[in-house]
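Hello forum,

I keep getting stuck at the same step: I have a sequence, I want structure tokens, and every attempt I make locally crashes halfway through. Rather than fight my setup again tonight, could one of you with a working pipeline run this one for me? It's a single chain of 233 residues.
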Amino acid sequence: MSLNAELELELKNRGADWLSFVDISHLSIDQTKGYRSAILIGLVLSPEYLQKVTDTSDYVREMIRCKRIHEDEFHLKELQADQLADYLAHYLTQKGYPAYSQSEDSIYLTGFYNEKTKSTPLPHKTIARLAGLGWIGKHNLLVTPEYGSAICMCTVLTDAPITTHSVEVPLSAQCGACGICQVICADHAIKGKAWDVTTSRDGVVDVYKCTTCFKCVVHCPWTQKYIRKNGGH
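Reply #2:
Ran it on my machine without issues. Output:
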């Protein structure tokens, strides 16, 4: 069994929906910390959950008010993705391969997260784009043709001898004239500009205004397409 297959089996048995093995050797050392490869771990949000959020006005605010945010599926899957990344990094280092988890705790503890700018040198969505999984939408989140933005991700950087790839030309934004995420954003954080490689994050979204209400995720037409395809209305 190849190392790729071994890791995929190990992580899927622990709840991951997919793994992508991505070449990042062409990126700057500031982004990669000197590692050559990245392993992207993905979990998909359930269509039932997404339909509930779609149908519930101010879902996140209500969950916070009722002190039930710890029960929220997105919150739980974000934690799970981080835990899987920490587990995978430990699994690889136990085998003698250098590895670094980009979980929230890890990037905070190692200074890989800039709290002032709310940024990290190598976001998970950048690795996902290099894997050919999707594009950056007008809400500054990854959009995939299959799941929309209904995913949680975390990554592990490593020099383990895995087989990697990266697409030569990542998918360009497929948002077109759609601006639902900007219209629905009560915080006016989304600026309505399509992202491309020449666009800065701040040209697309004001992260200091964003309150993570989640409306831009569930109302994205690509997420809604995923919901409808899997039993939503």
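The chain has one domain: 3-229. If your local run keeps crashing, start a new thread with the error log.
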